[in-house]
Amino acid sequence: MRDEKILVGNKYQHFKGDIMTIKALAKHSETLEEMVIYEHKNELWARPISSFLSDEDVSHRLDNVTGQKYRFMKIRKED
Fold first, then answer.
1. CB 39 within 8 A of CB 20
2. I need a surface site. Which of 9, 12, 48, 72 has the fewest CB within 10 A?
3. Residue 37: how many CB atoms within 10 A of its CB?
4. Could you please report the per-residue DSSP string of the chain?
5. In whole angstroms, what is the distance from residue 77 CA to residue 33 CA?
6. Which domains does the chain have, with CATH numbers?
7. pTM of the model
8. Which residues are CB-contacts of 17 (< 8 A; sequence separation ≥ 6)?
């Protein structure tokens, strides 16, 4: 897992091109695993933070339209 802090309001791009907005951080009620809640196409989704920040290299996938290395990459604001 990448060492990166996820903050509510941050935007991430999925390797297939879609933009996700972080809405909340939560804990799984049974396992206490940390989860990220994000908005994708006007729906809320939950994913374990360990999966969201996975260090799996997806750059070789044929469906990777962005060319990015990771499944989700933070979009940096321009100054």
1. yes
2. 9
3. 15
4. -------TT-EEEETTS-EEEEEEEEE-TTT--EEEEEEETTEEEEEEHHHHT-----TT-TT-SS--SSSEEEPPPP-
5. 29
6. 11-74 (2.30.30)
7. 0.88
8. 65, 66
- C-alpha 38/C-alpha 42 separation (Å) is 10
pLDDT tens by residue, 23-58: 999 999 999 999 999 999 999 999 999 999 999 999
Structure tokens given for 38: 């994000």
Token pair listed for 8 = 């509510």
Residue 42, sorted as left (phi over 0), alpha (psi -120 to 50) or beta, turns out to be left
> How far is residue 50's CA from residue 34's CA, in Å, rounded to a whole number?
8
